[in-house]
């Protein structure tokens, strides 16, 4: 465990020492941002909209006390979405989609000697392959989390109003009630931390793949499970530290 | 010229290379010959810097490579071209982009037009001028090897390393690849090191051959000398080849040189 962590630290250090030219890294980062960000918009939108909708309906189902105003449902959807569901669930979804893609891609490059080909050319393979992926993830995760927040709240609105559990006015009043801007900052900090964990762990698992196709599959699975566990631990740590 | 001096390498306490010293001559096809598991590929990886030897030194044209500063290592690495066993082409790039890649990375001073010209020249040199737009998945194994060679020579390398360039190829394509490597070596005067266990390649392009057995260098010489070598392990290796056995049979029947060479050895008698 300690040895793996040490190797991970050295891996990260190797990535930022002897980096490639800025123009090369910029182009690679844009390519990766498209793969990590743009290509994930659909899945993040679907997941977040339905989570918002389900949250709204289930809160309405549990709030039967006539003394509690209906606007509380909108308030609770907003708080749950911003503080937890949007950053954490989005990151878990991305750990599955992006994490497995990063680990599988790098693992395949490793076993087919493409990484060795880069090294022989005198190219720092970690800087060329991993750094753009991590930067792209750090840029795209917060944007996807913001999108998830919006669509989740919109999903809650549509579910609440279309099923008739509450009025449009109550929901809007709820989502505007006692708004704390810091919660958005907190969610974005979580998104950045989760982005680093997912991209870093997945790259590490993929980069050090040895063997054949079976091991590439194992690296992808390991990347997803380890990323999810790391997200959950970091989620708790950040909540304890920053709230 | 590449000088390898007393190289040793172990994995988990198991020695794989045991004090290997040899010289790879400039302008020649230098073959690292030996059976599977004799340490050929490990030695090659130590020379190109993909693996660090436990003991010993490697010198490229007088510049010490092992344990030298990163800048010096980088400078030497940029003069190295390598053809991998599986070609190691970048899947996400076309054939032309694969050949252009080292130019983009290593020679930023080249303009896009100059790079395009160089890519066209290299692809034409390996006979693939019409395959530039294809993806690696769309071309045959032999074509992949040729793209690998084009990529290796694109940045005008001084040293060319080939790890089993004939693996997975039919005999006719193997000969074409061997011929291409030999032509490029002579044309550009580069130092070429080829890891192989293929006796066809020895006969075809073996100008300087180094025989490894169980992590040790047992013999080195030219292809004309190899059949006269008085090393039992080397003779056993040579005559384990079906091609050489068949050639010897023909020679035996026609009293050729091969029969004379092997008349007193135990390996020839059973053939």
Automatic annotation (TrEMBL), chain A:
Pfam families: MlaE (PF02405). The chain crosses the membrane at residues 34-61, 134-159, 180-204, 224-242. Signal peptide: none annotated. InterPro entries: Permease_MalE. It comes from the Bacteria. Keywords: Membrane, Transmembrane, Transmembrane helix. This is ABC transporter permease.
Automatic annotation (TrEMBL), chain B:
The keyword rRNA-binding does not apply. InterPro entries: AAA+_ATPase, ABC_transporter-like_ATP-bd, ABC_transporter-like_CS, P-loop_NTPase. Residues 2-239 form the ABC transporter domain. It holds the Pfam family ABC_tran. Keywords: ATP-binding, Nucleotide-binding, Transport. Signal peptide: none annotated. It comes from the Bacteria. The keyword Zinc-finger does not apply. GO terms for molecular function: ATP binding. This is ATP-binding cassette domain-containing protein.
């Amino acid at each position: 465990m300690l040895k793996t962590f040490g190797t991970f630290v050295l891996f990260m250090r190797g990535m930022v020492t002897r980096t490639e030219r800025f123009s090369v890294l910029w182009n690679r980062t844009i390519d990766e941002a498209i793969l990590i960000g743009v290509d994930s918009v659909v899945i993040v939108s679907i997941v977040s909209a339905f989570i918002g909708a389900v949250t709204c309906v289930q809160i309405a189902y549990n709030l039967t006390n006539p003394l509690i105003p209906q606007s509380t449902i909108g308030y609770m959807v907003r708080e749950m979405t911003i503080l937890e569901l949007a950053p954490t669930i989005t990151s878990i979804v991305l750990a599955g989609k992006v994490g497995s893609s990063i680990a599988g891609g790098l693992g395949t490059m490793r076993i087919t000697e493409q990484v060795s080909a880069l090294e022989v050319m005198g190219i720092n393979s970690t800087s060329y392959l991993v750094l753009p992926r991590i930067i792209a993830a750090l840029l795209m995760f917060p944007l996807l989390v913001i999108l998830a927040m919006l669509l989740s709240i919109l999903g809650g609105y549509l579910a609440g109003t279309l099923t008739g559990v509450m009025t449009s006015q109550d929901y809007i009043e709820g989502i505007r009630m006692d708004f704390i801007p810091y919660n958005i900052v907190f969610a974005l900090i979580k998104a950045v931390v989760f982005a680093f964990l997912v991209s870093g762990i997945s790259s590490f698992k993929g980069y050090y793949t040895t063997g054949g196709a079976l091991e590439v599959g194992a690296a992808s699975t390991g990347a997803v499970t380890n990323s999810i566990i790391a997200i959950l631990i970091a989620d708790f740590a950040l909540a304890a530290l920053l709230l | 010229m590449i000088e390898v001096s007393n190289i040793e390498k172990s994995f988990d306490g198991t020695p794989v290379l045991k004090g290997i010293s040899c010289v790879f001559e400039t302008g020649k096809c230098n073959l690292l010959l030996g059976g599977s598991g004799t340490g050929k590929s490990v030695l090659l990886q130590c020379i190109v810097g993909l693996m660090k030897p436990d003991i010993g030194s490697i010198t490229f044209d007088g510049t010490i490579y092992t344990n030298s500063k990163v800048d010096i290592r980088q400078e030497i690495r940029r003069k190295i071209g390598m053809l991998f066993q599986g070609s190691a082409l970048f899947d996400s790039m076309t054939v032309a982009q694969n050949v252009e890649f080292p130019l983009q990375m290593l020679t930023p001073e080249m303009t896009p037009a100059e790079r395009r010209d160089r890519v066209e020249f290299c692809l034409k040199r390996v006979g693939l001028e019409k395959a530039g737009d294809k993806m690696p998945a769309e071309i045959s194994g032999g074509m992949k090897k040729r793209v690998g060679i084009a990529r290796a020579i694109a940045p005008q390398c001084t040293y060319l390393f080939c790890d089993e360039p004939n693996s997975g190829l039919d005999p006719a394509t193997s000969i074409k690849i061997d011929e291409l490597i030999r032509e490029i070596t002579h044309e550009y005067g580069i130092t070429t090191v080829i890891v192989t266990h293929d006796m066809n390649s020895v006969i075809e392009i073996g100008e300087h051959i180094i025989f490894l057995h169980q992590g040790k260098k047992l013999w080195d010489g030219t292809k004309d000398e190899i059949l006269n070598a008085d090393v039992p392990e080397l003779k056993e290796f040579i005559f384990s080849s079906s091609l050489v056995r068949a050639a010897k049979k023909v020679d035996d029947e026609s009293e050729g040189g091969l029969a004379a060479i092997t008349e007193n050895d135990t390996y020839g008698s059973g053939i």
